[in-house]
Amino acid sequence: MAPFVRASPARRRPYLSTLMESPPTEAQDWEAPDHRNRQHEMRGPMTLPPGLGAFNHALYQSTRVRLEPGHRVELVENGAIFDEIVEAIRQATESVHILVFIWRPSEPSERIIEALCERARAGVACRVIVDPVGSEEVSGEHDFDPMVEWRLREGGVEVHYFRPLSGRWLGRLFGRTHHKLVLIDGKVGFTGGFGIWKSWQGQGDSPEEWRDTNVRVEGPAVRDMQIAFARSWQECGGALLPESCFPEPSPGFEHDTCAGFVESIGASGISEAERMLRMVFAEARERLWIANAYFTPPKAILEQLLEKRKQGVDVRVLAAGPVHDWRIVRASQRATYERMLKGGVRMWEYQPSMMHSKTVLVDDWLTVVGSTNLDALSLHRMREGSLVVADRRLAAKLAQCWARDLTHSKEVTLASGGRTNPWRRFARRVTQLLAVDR
């Protein structure tokens, strides 16, 4: 073996001079800590072969999820979600499982408590998980409103907290569950952006009533939603669920919609949520419309959107407007506008209330509805879940929602709020700190 010899400065210079003489371009330097690492990161903007088969191949090797046939999926908007959930609970015969980030005293809470207790008295196993950050008592020291919890327990409902807050300061941000899941008999599932609170009442047309989009689903994906609940249930101290909670899906739905549920548990590196979104975005050829409550994604996703626009795709973003629950997040969101607008992406802000939806519409057949926000917290620190659906009928309904929402939105241009400023740049840097180990 030849002895180790340290390279001389002259021998090292060609490599170093190459780096020094090739400064990063504006695109490379945009929030990039070191453009030289690009060759070691997940491949940048890509285009998948057309069709469901090719998309499924990409999604499966990225997230281990395929879109399977045999589903019935319906959009459920705004306060109608509570009507649907209460009706489904009252029809339960085996089990009702709820996993939510926010559950606070309110009229929707009263309705759901009543329905759960009635079913529990009838012998149905009712199990509830709440996240203490979202469901923490508004004025007090309890992880969950004691009266709500007491009424549920007295009514025969088993209640657990997901990672109690006692002594966990960093835990208030990291490792929470942001899921919104309601599962009936292992056959019917609900997910989306809803919480059990007054903000999700109404029609999303006033500051007190948030705009949100959810889905009701039957089919094989419900089993994966049930698994997401079961994993959290075990961690919270619950027993293993019986086999009856995982029934075989009923065959032969009329529309035979293909769907899959992608759960993301938060991790260093590329999370399942980001993998899913990047594959969905890569499939777009004509239309890529994103509605999201906290639109401040990592650099790689922003660059993918710009590349899609270069490819001729109609890229649009509908973001939260003046009614917003986090000032710094809205500023961070607005820090992305200037580059997006210069790249041809069209941006809107919803005006009457908080835009809380988390949806994606690709071309005329592919949609995403779930709890996943496009921010570092959601993509890298939280447990999330989204339903990916291949169905032209559902895509058409989501397009109708877009048309209606745009009548209540203001388009942002460079001349009207689209320019960045020091406050926005600072906010963007702060919010991206949550993804520093990405």
What does this structure look like?
By secondary structure, this protein is of the alpha+beta class. Helices cover about 35% and strands about 20% of the residues. The chain is built from 15 helices and 15 strands. The chain has a 15-stranded mixed beta sheet with strand order 4-3-2-5-6-7-1-8-14-13-12-9-10-11-15, sandwiched between helices. A hairpin with a 3-residue loop joins strand 12 and strand 13. Helix 9 runs parallel beside helix 10. The chain is globular, with a radius of gyration of 23 Å. The two termini are about 40 Å apart. The N terminus is likely disordered. It comes from Archangium gephyra. This is Cardiolipin synthase.
Short description:
The protein is an alpha+beta fold and 438 residues long. Helices cover 34% and strands 20% of the residues.
Largest sheet: 15 strands, mixed
How much strand?
15-25%
Radius of gyration: 23 Å
**Overall pLDDT score:** 88
Topology, element by element:
Blueprint: H1 9-20, H2 26-29, H3 52-63, E1 68-77, H4 80-90, E2 95-100, H5 107-121, E3 125-130, H6 132-135, H7 146-154, E4 158-161, E5 180-184, E6 188-192, E7 213-218, H8 221-235, E8 257-264, H9 272-283, E9 287-292, H10 299-310, E10 314-320, H11 327-334, H12 337-342, E11 346-350, E12 358-362, E13 366-370, H13 376-380, E14 384-390, H14 392-406, E15 409-412, H15 422-432
Helix pairs in contact: 3-9, 4-5, 5-7, 9-10, 11-15
